[in-house]
């Protein structure tokens, strides 16, 4: 966080060094240099470390800060040193908070755009009163005097001496002399608290005052190419008030610099990005800016006079007062705030702007920075928050990062959009803090609930404009991969990185083609001077203005404001990328070392690109929609349709720019179902998918669920090692946005083929469960006249009239098993006489494999289905039910784990286990069948499992088959007994897991 300004190494080989702050200034009318200072703000996750046993045994929270590179320890911190701290608390249910943010950000979800009201967060998601009271008591017990908890309940302020804090948190303090000669203090150990309250504390902010902010300025550039438009000098000057114009006054138009080449006026910038220009655009909206410095009111007034606006600009002081701090009159202090505010005035003059001002960057602490963000959110006055301050992830404490993360999640729950500059040091964001040229990203731009904004260089306007990556002698756009935050769902299939990628979007940042502002520099003039400025500091408020314009538009007024931006941004990119974004495909951010290169589609340089406001507004302000629910009928596809294949980019990546990277561990693949592959564009309640993993890198599993809903603790497909190819079918509930999500905990390629879908209409077919019966077994001449393995051939299987399948059946549910395989291969099932599909149903990759999969196959007019064997294998086919015009409807449920014997006792060989279905997960009494994913793991030998109705006879057919040591999953549509139970029988001791997806009846 920002405190004192320290010197930082200059950029090798460049004439001008950059500031650590996101602003880059070129004076529009002077040869003098304009000095800038810098501040940064970051967020990290805290981890409680286990202490000795006992409910109140101490636990350390987070980690101790490291001594900065080049610093020297000078001794112990004076015991009387005053520390301003906050003990930060976790939300009462962090997962529920995350789920709520997803729900209010997902069209079709019942909670879409139903944000929390002002002041509601504490009672809904904040820590309970008991938790707050318990932590306060624990602090008092160690000699501290906790203050009043924050309005959102997330932090308890504490003022203490170093001696008191040392005793309370079991840590020492030491002073360090930094490279610039400044002396700061830091704690020597992570803070410790009793275990019974430590689990509720995410960190203690303020135990260290070490600051790594660097401040430098760029060379100034005259406004007049001929020298005739000079405005420098010691005399007083005023800017004549003009009527509103998206262009500018003579200070710029008469400077000899060209609008659209040397700088961008508000009108030129708005027009290039498809935004609206008028004196009232943004009316009714409020946008807040985060600042750690005074702003010169005269400079803001001069800009308003120049552009002809009367935008309301007010200030809220946090941990400071009006008149405190360094005056914004030296061409350094006030530059950042002038850029943020002037940019917003020019693009959304009808909006109200609130400047949330903390203490000066030179003296601000981590606690001050957190206080400002928290005030911006708990006030809940602004629909959009813009910050141009940040610092590299690696130098921020975990306590501060985690506290910020909770505050930004609170903002998302309230429907506040937060945008942050991604930094100006290219891929080496820590360079100014530590001198390291290693890849690093900036916080808070890397925060999961923040939209990171990178920078571009732009020339021309309108249809003739060109845009490239900003990276020159002054600076370069920040971007890369977070070292802290896990992959985020919204980037699935777009940023295929092992952790959160930055930035999300980008906009103009190059000071050579930058933003016109006014600033005060008493060394040059007693009045504000016009200047040209750049940096991702300009890009962030430009995106803030784009959101304000969207919120003020007709669509958002009808459907609700944008709120948390990232979910909607990436959905817009997947659905219609060229319509919604201006892709930046040229350049790199190798500012100090080799970084990342721009490419078609998303990249860690300029993100998704810049806004195309008209199309983007439509996507961001999407109609609420409604998820289809209720009793459903089935519609089989005549041939499986491939919705996703990460190997070749099918359904993977942006709408026009696929990617062929695998799904990374922890990553999510959003799969569009409605409107794809012959599936209707609405009314779909569920989908039957055949999921296949291939090129696995280790053991893992796939989880499938409705987009925008809580990720379940279930699995649809499991595997045990690397280099495997394995498939399993899954019935998945479809969200109101027509999307299902697929997530894996191990990097792999993933394929999803749709076999059919359910709708809430009565036009489809209904299901009838059968006692499982074996229709085919090539090992023993069942359904075939040979006992020879099938090699690269088709087996014709009679279905109608066999195993209880009537002549009126339209589709059949078969459990296919390949066993005694030779080499790799696969099975494909399809209606006899139809063209063989390109999608497989059962896959294997090694000799000696036994593997099943459930398939739903349309029945040909001759009553048969065909099974193609690619490779060599014995084949088994067991029927468990069929679809026809009669029968029962299907209802989806939220996926839920009903059984896991790993928590009790494995199912023994020759034993039967009865599982209660009715009454679980909202399943009513009297259902006829249940749709389960059944998994065996910890297998002790080769074996099989059969699922059947409790109270009925155990059939000779099987649902799962395995060899020793394997973990195998398969979908099962099992008949339910009259007592509401399903039985599982196995002939070999194994653990059994059962996850429910829906029910029949």
List the helices and strands and how they pair.
Elements lengths: L23 E4 L20 E2 L8 E4 L10 E5 L5 E8 L4 H11 L16 H4 L4 H13 L13 E7 H8 L3 E5 L5 E5 L4 E3 H4 L2 E5 L44 H4 L12 H7 L13 E6 L5 H11 L4 E6 L17 H13 L4 E6 L8 H14 L4 E4 L3 E2 L5 H16 L3 E5 L9 H4 L7 E2 L7 E9 L6 E4 L10 E2 L19 E2 L2 E4 L6 E5 L9 E6 L1 H17 L1 H6 L5 H16 E2 L27 E2 L1 H8 L12 E13 L22 E5 L11 E11 L5 E7 L10 E3 L6 E8 L5 E6 L4 E11 L6 E12 L12 E9 L12 E21 L10 E3 L6 E8 L5 E21 L5 E11 L10 E6 L12 E9 L5 E7 L10 E3 L5 E8 L5 E6 L4 E10 L1
Parallel strand pairs: 11-13, 11-14, 12-13, 14-16, 16-18, 18-22
Antiparallel strand pairs: 1-24, 2-3, 3-9, 4-7, 5-6, 5-10, 7-8, 15-17, 18-19, 20-21, 23-24, 25-26, 27-34, 28-33, 29-32, 29-34, 30-31, 30-33, 35-40, 36-40, 37-38, 37-39, 37-40, 41-48, 42-47, 43-46, 43-48, 44-45, 44-47
Helix pairs in contact: 1-11, 8-9, 9-13, 10-11, 13-16, 15-16
Description:
- The structure is a single chain.
- The longest helix is centred in the middle third of the chain and has 17 residues, at 536-552.
- The strands form 13 sheets. Strands 11, 12, 13, 14, 16, 18, 19 and 22 form an eight-stranded mixed beta sheet that branches. Strands 35, 36, 37, 38, 39 and 40 form a six-stranded antiparallel beta sheet that branches. The protein has a four-stranded antiparallel beta sheet with strand order 27-34-29-32, with no helix packed on it.
- Helix 8 (297-307) packs parallel to helix 9, helix 13 packs across helix 16 and helix 15 (565-580) packs across helix 16 (613-620).
- The model is unreliable at 1-22, 27-54 and 213-236 (pLDDT under 50).
- The protein is α+β, with helices and mostly antiparallel strands.
- The protein contains 16 helices and 48 strands.
- 63% of the residues are buried.
- A hairpin with an 8-residue loop joins strand 2 (48-49) and strand 3.
């Amino acid at each position: 966080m920002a405190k004192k300004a320290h010197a930082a190494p200059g950029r090798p080989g460049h004439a001008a060094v950059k500031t650590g702050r996101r602003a880059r200034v070129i004076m529009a009318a002077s040869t003098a240099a304009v000095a800038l200072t810098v501040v940064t703000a970051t967020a990290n996750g805290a981890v409680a470390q286990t202490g000795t046993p006992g409910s109140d045994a101490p636990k350390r929270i987070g980690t101790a800060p490291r001594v900065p590179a080049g610093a020297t320890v000078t001794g112990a911190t004076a015991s009387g040193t005053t520390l301003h701290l906050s003990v930060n608390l976790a939300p009462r249910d962090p997962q529920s908070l995350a789920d709520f943010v997803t729900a209010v950000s997902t069209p079709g979800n019942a909670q879409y755009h139903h944000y929390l009201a002002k002041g509601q967060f504490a009672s809904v998601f904040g820590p309970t009163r008991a938790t707050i009271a318990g932590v306060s008591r624990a602090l008092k017990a160690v000699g501290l005097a906790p203050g009043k908890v924050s309005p959102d309940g997330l932090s308890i302020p504490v003022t203490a001496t170093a001696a008191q804090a040392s005793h309370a948190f079991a840590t020492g303090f030491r002073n360090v002399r930094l490279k610039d000669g400044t002396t700061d203090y830091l704690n020597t150990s992570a803070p410790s608290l009793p275990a019974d309250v430590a689990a509720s504390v995410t960190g203690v902010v303020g135990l260290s005052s070490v600051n790594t902010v660097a401040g430098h300025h760029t060379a100034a550039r005259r406004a007049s190419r001929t020298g005739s438009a000079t405005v420098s000098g010691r005399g007083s000057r005023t800017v004549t008030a003009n009527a509103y114009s998206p262009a500018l006054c003579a200070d710029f138009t008469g400077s000899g610099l060209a609008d659209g080449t040397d700088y961008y006026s508000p009108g030129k910038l708005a027009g290039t990005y498809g935004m609206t220009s008028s004196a009232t655009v943004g009316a009714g909206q409020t946008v807040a800016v985060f600042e750690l410095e005074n702003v010169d009111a005269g400079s803001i007034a001069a800009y308003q006079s120049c552009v002809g606006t009367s935008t309301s600009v007010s200030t809220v002081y946090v941990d400071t007062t009006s008149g405190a701090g360094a005056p914004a009159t030296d061409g350094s202090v006030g530059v950042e705030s002038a850029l943020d505010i002037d940019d917003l005035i020019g693009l959304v003059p009808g909006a109200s702007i609130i400047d949330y001002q903390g203490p000066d960057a030179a003296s601000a602490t981590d606690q001050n920075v957190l206080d400002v963000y928290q005030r911006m959110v708990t006030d809940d006055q602004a629909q959009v928050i813009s910050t141009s301050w940040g610092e590299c992830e690696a130098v921020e404490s975990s306590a501060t990062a985690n506290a910020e993360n909770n505050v930004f999640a609170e903002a998302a729950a309230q429907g506040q959009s937060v945008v942050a500059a991604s930094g100006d040091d290219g891929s080496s964001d820590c360079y100014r803090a530590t001198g390291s040229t290693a890849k690093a990203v900036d916080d808070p731009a890397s925060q999961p609930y923040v939209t990171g904004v990178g920078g571009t260089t732009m020339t021309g306007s309108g249809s003739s404009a060109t845009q490239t990556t900003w990276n020159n002698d002054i600076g370069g756009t920040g971007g890369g991969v977070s070292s802290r935050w896990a992959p985020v769902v919204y980037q699935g299939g777009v940023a295929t990185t092992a952790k959160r990628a930055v930035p999300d979007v980008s906009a103009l940042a190059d000071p050579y083609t930058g933003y016109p502002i006014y600033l005060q520099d008493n060394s040059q003039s007693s009045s504000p001077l016009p200047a040209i400025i750049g940096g991702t500091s300009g890009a962030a408020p430009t995106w803030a203005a784009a959101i304000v314009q969207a919120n003020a538009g007709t669509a958002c007024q009808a459907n609700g404001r944008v709120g948390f931006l990232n979910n909607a941004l990436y959905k817009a990119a997947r659905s219609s990328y060229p319509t919604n974004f201006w892709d930046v495909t040229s350049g790199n951010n190798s500012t100090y070392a080799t970084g990342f290169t721009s490419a078609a589609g998303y990249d860690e340089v300029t993100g998704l690109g810049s806004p195309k406001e008209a199309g983007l507004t439509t996507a961001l302000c999407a109609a609420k929609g409604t998820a289809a629910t209720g009793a459903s009928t089935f519609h089989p596809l005549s041939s499986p349709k491939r919705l996703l294949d990460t190997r070749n980019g099918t359904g993977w990546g942006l709408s026009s720019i696929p990617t062929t990277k695998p799904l990374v561990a922890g990553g999510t693949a959003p799969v569009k179902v409605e409107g794809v592959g012959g599936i209707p564009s609405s009314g779909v309640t569920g989908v039957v998918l055949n999921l296949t993993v291939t090129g696995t890198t280790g053991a893992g599993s796939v989880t499938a669920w409705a987009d925008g809903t809580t990720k379940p603790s279930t699995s649809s497909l499991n595997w045990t090692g690397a280099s495997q190819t394995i498939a399993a079918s899954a019935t998945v509930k479809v969200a109101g946005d027509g999307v299902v999500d697929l997530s894996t905990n191990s990097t792999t390629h993933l394929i999803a083929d749709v076999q059919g879908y359910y709708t809430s209409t009565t036009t489809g077919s209904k299901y009838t469960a059968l006692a499982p019966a074996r229709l085919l077994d090539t090992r023993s001449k069942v359904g075939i006249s040979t006992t020879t393995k099938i090699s690269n051939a088709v087996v014709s299987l009679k279905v109608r009239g066999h195993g209880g399948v009537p002549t009126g059946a339209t589709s059949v549910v078969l459990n296919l098993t390949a066993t005694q395989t030779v080499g790799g291969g696969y099975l494909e099932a399809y209606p006899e006489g139809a063209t063989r599909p390109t999608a497989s149903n059962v896959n294997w990759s090694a000799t000696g494999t036994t593997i099943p999969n459930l398939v739903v196959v349309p029945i040909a007019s001759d009553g048969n289905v065909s099974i193609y064997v690619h490779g060599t294998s014995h084949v088994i086919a067991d029927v468990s039910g069929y679809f026809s015009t009669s029968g029962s409807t299907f209802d989806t449920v939220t996926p839920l784990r009903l059984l896991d014997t790993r928590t009790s006792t494995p199912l023994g060989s020759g034993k039967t286990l009865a599982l209660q279905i009715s009454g679980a997960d909202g399943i009513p009494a009297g259902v006829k069948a249940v749709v389960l994913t059944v998994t065996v793991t910890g297998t002790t030998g080769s074996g099989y499992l059969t699922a059947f109705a409790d109270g009925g006879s155990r059939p000779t057919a099987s649902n799962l088959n395995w060899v020793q040591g394997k973990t195998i999953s398969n979908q099962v549509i099992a008949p339910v007994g009259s007592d509401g139970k399903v039985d599982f029988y196995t002939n070999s001791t194994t653990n059994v897991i059962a996850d429910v997806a829906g029910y029949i009846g």
